[in-house]
From TrEMBL:
GO terms for cellular component: mitochondrial intermembrane space; mitochondrial matrix. The gene is Dmoj\GI24099. This is Succinate dehydrogenase assembly factor 3. Plays an essential role in the assembly of succinate dehydrogenase (SDH), an enzyme complex (also referred to as respiratory complex II) that is a component of both the tricarboxylic acid (TCA) cycle and the mitochondrial electron transport chain, and which couples the oxidation of succinate to fumarate with the reduction of ubiquinone (coenzyme Q) to ubiquinol. Promotes maturation of the iron-sulfur protein subunit of the SDH catalytic dimer, protecting it from the deleterious effects of oxidants. May act together with SDHAF1. Keywords: Chaperone, Mitochondrion, Transit peptide.
Amino acid sequence: MEAQLFMTEWARYASTITKQLGLRGKPKGELGEPLDSQSVEMLKDDQVVQLYELMLAAKALHGDTITADDVRGSNK
C-alpha cells in the first residue's frame, strides 16, 4: 500500500515539475506546490526532518533567510 501511494505521488510530482519547467527546462516561476497540513501530518518523523532540511538547503541556494513562519510551517 505504501509503495503504491509513493509511486502515485511521485508520478504526480513528476508531471507537475515537467509542466512547470516547460520544454527548455527552465522554471516558469516557483517549482512544486505547497504541502497541505493533512499531507504533512501523514509524514513520519524522519520524513519531516528530511523535508525541513531540504527547505533549509533550497533557501540557502537562493540566499533567502529562514523566517519564523518557515519554522512554524505557516502558509503565505
